[in-house]
Amino acid sequence: MMSQEKPESAPLSVLIADDHTLILEIIGLILEGTPDIRLTTAISIDGTREQLKKNGEFDLILLDLDMPGMNGVETLKEITALNAGRPVGIITGGPTPRVVEEMTRNGAAGLVPKTTSMKSLTNAIRFMAAGERYFPLEVIQENKAAQRAFESPLSGREVSVLNLLADGMPNREIGDSLGLAEATVKMHVKSICRKLGVTNRTQAVIQARNLKLT
Questions:
Q1: CA–CA separation, 110 vs 124, rounded Å?
Q2: Comparison of pLDDT for 73 and 136, the residue scoring more
Q3: What residue ranges define each of the domains in the chain, with the CATH number in brackets?
């Protein structure tokens, strides 16, 4: 009786989308020597959609957070749905505490800093494709250190208002979202500006980002 050989497992199908072609070329050169990973690339969100239509679902998709057409959590959810719920992670240059929290809360498979070594990237790809979540220890530690270094002068309600200001919402929509009267929202905006030492809502959003409050 002839023995049956166990078939080799198929390589992981990975799509990486980044508008910097040099980055994609470098990653491609590294992964050429990695037989368990089959790489497909895209240089835009539209290109990502096209690759999904052409090839079907991938074991893992990584999206550049700062790529044109990338709309944060909204695009993350859209691409995850198009990928039939399979893992979708984020590549970014300098993740803020808000980005880490938003991506964690909204189901990102992980967050890969652009400073990650190629060896760590291949390990992260395998980890996320296996259904695990990848958030590097240094990112978590940096965010915790930033939070300890600056104690927010804002109340919890003011932070909620500020986050919606950062999303470009007018006072009325902020009030509807938080169940507050428009006059109350205006009062919170004035308090936020005073505490941050600025004179208008645009400056408040910029200052809050500088202080990593949003």
A1: 8
A2: 73
A3: 12-145 (3.40.50.2300), 156-210 (1.10.10.10)
